[in-house]
Amino acid sequence: MKTYRISNLLRHSRTGLCFCSAVVLQYYELQVYYNRNVIRGNTAVLKCTIPSFVREYITVTSWVQDSKFNIYPTTKGEGKYHMLPSGELLIRRVDDEDKFRSYQCRAVNRLTGTTLLSGGRAKFSVTDPPVASAPRPLEKQASMQVRKDQTAVLPCYVEGNPPPAIRWFRQDHHQLRALAEADDRIYRAGECLIIQHVVESDAGRWVCVANNTAGVERMDVVLHVTSPLNVVIQPSGQLTVDVGGKATLTCHVSGSSPHLPATRTWLKDGHVVGPGGEALVLEKVQREDAGMYQCLVRSEDDSAQSSVQLRLGAAHPQLLYKFIYQTMQPGPPVSLKCIATGNPTPHITWHLDGFPLPQSDRFVIGQYVTLHGDVISHVNISNVQVEDGGIYRCTATNRVGEVSHSADMRVYGLPYIRPMPNMSAVAGERLYVACPVAGYPIESIVWQKDGRRLPLNRRQHIFPNGTLLLENVQGDPDRGIYRCTASNKQGRTATQTLPLNVIAPPKISPFAFQMDLHLGNRAGVQCLVTNGDLPLTIEWRKDGGPVDMDVSVQQLGEFTSSLSIDSLRPHHAGNYTCLATNSAAQASHSSRLLVNVPPRIGPFTFGELIEGVRTQVQCVIQAGDPPLTLRWLKDGVTLPPELGIQVMQDDFSSTLAIPRVSRAHAGNYTCIAGNPAKTASVTAQLVVSVPPRWVLEPRDRNVTRDDSVIFHCQAEGFPTPTLTWRKVIGRQPNEYQDLSIHGRGVQIFPNGTLLIQPVLQEHQGQYLCEAINGVGAGLSAVVSLIVHVPPEFEVKSAQSSVRRGSSQTLQCQAIGDGPMSIEWQREGVRFPALLQPRYEVKGTPVKGGYLSELHITDTAKSDSGTFTCIAKNPYGRAERIVHLQVQDAPGQPQDLRVVDTSSRSVQLAWLAPRDDRSPVLQYVVQYQQESNSR
């Protein structure tokens, strides 16, 4: 005996979770459960029993009667046979003929697609109890669970004598409420109550009352309505959090089930993380926390999940790998490496003793970014020399910040100091100077200035590593030649000099324009640089750009510059800045020039706009004295906030922006500018052209011939779209024919609705509805009209005669769409219920219809009568009547007698033959003279 282990597998992706279950295929059989004795006139209930280990994957699809007649499920069934969507077969009004029938159930395995018939054939007997009996339940179902929007079938299986009458009620509190008669959603189908598209308010107690002359039986069914679990993580989609920030994911669960509460499980990249609570909190987000998070919710009979992707936002650079302190002999190669991460991706730079790396063929710097966004940078030094020693520093920088690491690489050898370039310091600032010493070991590093060993005052500091710090740099005291000397224990030394220049930054004496300047006045200011080393450059800017050509600028010596305007005009107003620059720094001072003039607004226009685009206009005050005010009106009133119009304003202009233009934005927009003297306004019209969009888009239709069909085609837009209907007439693209407004059976209404009444076969095809208003490409939709033809007989009635004992074939050929079937009836009784061995029915599909032949061998007089063939397809039915006359030789006349005689005539009378084998066409009277008879 083999043992199978079945496990649930979990797989995740960026779109969600996937659960896979392994199922072992095992042999199973279907059996039919039924009541073997059914009271006449009652309902027989047949159930298809499925083994529990495969029940989840098996669906009962049909019942087979006598191995050839299939019965399929339906929610509406008042006929004799009714298969419920749940799989049961109801056989109503049981009579003697039913006990000769056999039934099997057919089911399909949804996993493999294979079908299986039940092993045995169910047959039942029909009983006639001698006395009346009260209704008795065949089975009781106290409760039923149905998912929302599905169909509920509430059974009421009872039997009794006489057959009970069934009524359904809804129990509200302690009262029973009868069901509404005209309800397409909740209705009675025989013994069952059907509730389609179940809603939560359908939950509760439903009562079935069965009664007959012998008694009453009540059966209660409690309906539980469940809704599928629904899981939503807030925030949804993607969540971006900066490194070090806090992330909170909340798992909201909705849905009803008797087995709630459901359990929550949090997963990250498919692995369980954290407790199963409603919220998952990450206090300080780290780089490894990025990924896909899922909240998996399970109940006993349902499961659902939601996911969110946690992405890292801005992250300060971090060094994942740092090179180490080294001491070595000259000669071998060395590689220094730093690995950094951050968001945005950082850039790594290298320094040696605070200076850029030496320009040497022995130094190679490399840097690249990995697939994970890490930056790897390295410095490779071939054939290390003594002068390569020192403090190496790697610095990783992005827009968030920077991080650095430094370590000493010591190379055994005599002291060596790399040359130091000329250096400039800014007066008043702090200055660090590192002595680039190589060689190992070094006993001491000494700084000197003008032959004197430092420090000479409290502003000078020497660190153990030889770095010189100058606090609050001064001009003459700190300017000069600095000498750095490194020595070892053997007294070997190395020295380099550093020329240091101290530059005083420029400083500007404040200036200002007069406040009461008007058009035509003269104006001027002077820019005096009171401090700062030469060489100095002085320039003027207006509003960040060059000054106007009619503005005079004069240089008054090395430290002064003047700006003057002979006659003020509106364009002279603005912010004037004096910039003084030397090699140390740049200084600036600004003053605003106000030219008092009344406001004047430049014209603006929106242009041609289509719905959905962005637009903005700028209202610019070309002239006007401050203080100035700017505001906007739409159609004479303040801008409605619900339109989402954005207004951005500076001192002399206001920009009106609409991120997405819609029809509601159309109107007149007015910009109003004012100052204490006057107001001015400019108005522009915004016209929004809206391309057509569907209000009612046409859909494909299927219709039966001679019915009517309506295609709705309505579109809106601005200007109002023109709607046109065309019919496809060829196989090539764009082969269309315009439909006349009132063609044969065709009517087009002003709103674009197309009515075809009655629908003929020639109307079948494809139709194009097009909406055009000159904006965009327009709209068009091609729909199909499929005309279904119901069965039809060209000749509704026919006569047929045959001699007794001969064979005769009755034919019925119907035209119409398939699938089609033809059944025969004789004197209103359906075949094959009365089939005899001499009768044979054959059906054959033919072009455009179906042919059925009833062949009768060895005809007898009893075969005479009216035969009806009934053709059916999904779109209708039709009947044809055939009158069959079986003819035979007539019988002998009876009771021949003389009624009257005369000299020239005789009147005879007789009775017709007693049987009616065939109609008597004529009688032949013969006579003989009496003498001849002797």
Automatic annotation (TrEMBL):
Residues 892-934 form the Fibronectin type-III domain. It is found in: Membrane. GO terms for cellular component: membrane; neuron projection. GO terms for biological process: cell adhesion; neuron projection morphogenesis. Gene3D superfamilies: Immunoglobulins. It comes from the Eukaryota. InterPro entries: FN3_dom (IPR003961), FN3_sf (IPR036116), Ig-like_dom (IPR007110), Ig-like_dom_sf (IPR036179), Ig-like_fold (IPR013783), Ig_I-set (IPR013098), Ig_sub (IPR003599), Ig_sub2 (IPR003598). It is a single-pass type I membrane protein. CDD domains: FN3, Ig, IgI_4_Dscam, IgI_5_Dscam. This is Down syndrome cell adhesion molecule-like protein Dscam2. Signal peptide: none annotated. Its main location: membrane. Keywords: Cell adhesion, Disulfide bond, Immunoglobulin domain, Membrane, Repeat, Signal, Transmembrane, Transmembrane helix. SUPFAM superfamilies: Fibronectin type III, Immunoglobulin. PANTHER family: CTX-RELATED TYPE I TRANSMEMBRANE PROTEIN (PTHR12231), DPR-INTERACTING PROTEIN ETA, ISOFORM B-RELATED (PTHR12231:SF253). Pfam families: I-set, Ig_3. Residues 41-127, 129-224, 228-311, 317-410, 415-501, 506-594, 599-683, 692-784, 791-887 form the Ig-like domain.
